[in-house]
Amino acid sequence: MKIEDFIIDQNSPVFIIAELSANHNGSIDTAIETVKAAKRAGANCIKLQTFTADTITLDSKNEDFKISQGTLWDGQYLHDLYKTTHLPWEWHEQIMEVAKQEGLICFSSPFDPTSVEFLESLNVPAYKIASFEITDIPLIELIASKGKPVIISTGIAEEEDIELALDACKRMGNTDIALLKCTSSYPAPIAEANMCMVKDLAQRYGVISGLSDHTMGNTVPVVATAMGAKIIEKHFILDRSIGGADASFSMDEAEFTAMVKAVREAESAIGTVNYTLTDKQRKGRDFCRSLYVSDDIKAGELLTENNIRSVRPGFGMHPKFYKEMLGKKAAKDMEKGDRLTSHSTKK
Fold first, then answer.
1. What is the pLDDT of residue 74?
2. Domain boundaries in the chain?
C-alpha cells in the first residue's frame, strides 16, 4: 500500500495517523493549529471526517435516533450531535493545504456518496471507512471504485461484515486494503483491546493490519506494534481543556508525542530475525563460561571434577568439551586460573 510517498508494508515504519474528528470545536483556527501540532507530535498523517448532519442521519426525534447505549453522548439526538461536530466542507481545502505545507499526508472518512465525490474533487490520496460504516456496502463499493487505498476500521464488525466489505472492494477491482482492529467504545478499556487480532487480521485476510485506538495511554499502540500493526490511528486534540464531543478520549500534543516515541522505540526493539552477533555482542562473549584449571595440577596428573571447572570468563575451551577432558593427563604443570586448551593434555 502506498499513500502519497509513504509505502506501508511489512518492512515499513508504522504509519501514524492523528484523527482530527470533532476536535476542531467549530473553529477553523483550532483545526489549523491542530494540524501543526500533529506534525510537531510526530504524526505522518492528519485524518478528517467528511459529513454533515443531513448526510449521516435524519433530523428526527424518533426514539431510534436518540443515543442511549451508555456512551458519552447519551440523551442527545444523532442529528443534533453531528450538527455540532461536523467539519464544515468549506474548510477542507484550506486544512489540506496546511497539512501539505507541514509535510503531513491528509485524507478523510466519507460517510455518504456526496462526501466521496467532494473528496474526489480535492484529490485525496486514500480513504478511511469508519467502524460504523463497515456495513454500508454500496458506500464501500463507491469508495473502492476510486482506485485509491482503502483503510477499514472493524470496531463493530463480525467476520461476515469484514468479508462483505473486503468482497465489495475486490468487486471494484481494489485490493489495496488495510484492516484496523478497533474497539468502538469511548474511551475503550485496555482489557477489551484484543491486540492478538492485529496479527490475525493480517494472516486471515492477507492485508495490511493496524489499530484504530480509543484507549488511553501508550500501552495498546505499543502492543499493536509488537503484534505487527503497520497503521496506528489516535484521536488528537490541541488540549483536552477546550472540551468537545471527543475530548475525553483524545491525546493532546505531549501525550501523542510520547506515544509516537514509544511506538518508534517498539519498532526498533522488534528488529529482525538474525542469529549473527554484532561486534559488541561478540565482545560480550568474553564473559560467557569456559573451562579453567580450578586447582593446581602437575604434569601427568589426571583432570578431574576437582581441578577443572566451567566458569566465567570465556577464554578457555568450550564447556561442551568438559566430559571429554575428564580423565585425561595434564601435558604440563598448570596453576589455578590457567585456561584449559587443546594443548593442556597429552595425546
1. 78
2. 2-51+86-270, 277-347
H-type alpha helices, the chain = 28-40, 53-56, 78-85, 89-102, 113-121, 137-144, 159-171, 196-205, 219-226, 253-270, 279-284, 322-325
The pTM score is 0.87
CATH class of 2-51+86-270: alpha beta
CA distances from 291 to 253, 322, 324 (A): 56, 7, 12
Q: Which position has the grid cell 485496555?
A: 190
* pLDDT score, position 69: 67
pLDDT by residue (tens digit) across 253-290?
999 999 999 999 999 999 888 899 889 888 989 999 99
What fold is seen in the domain 277-347? Type Iii Antifreeze Protein Isoform Hplc 12 (3.90.1210)
The overall average pLDDT reported for the chain is: 94
Buried b (16+ CB within 10 A) or exposed e, 94-127: ebbebbeebebbbbbbbbbeebbebbeeeebebb
Question: In this structure, what C-alpha cell is assigned to residue 187?
Answer: 474511551
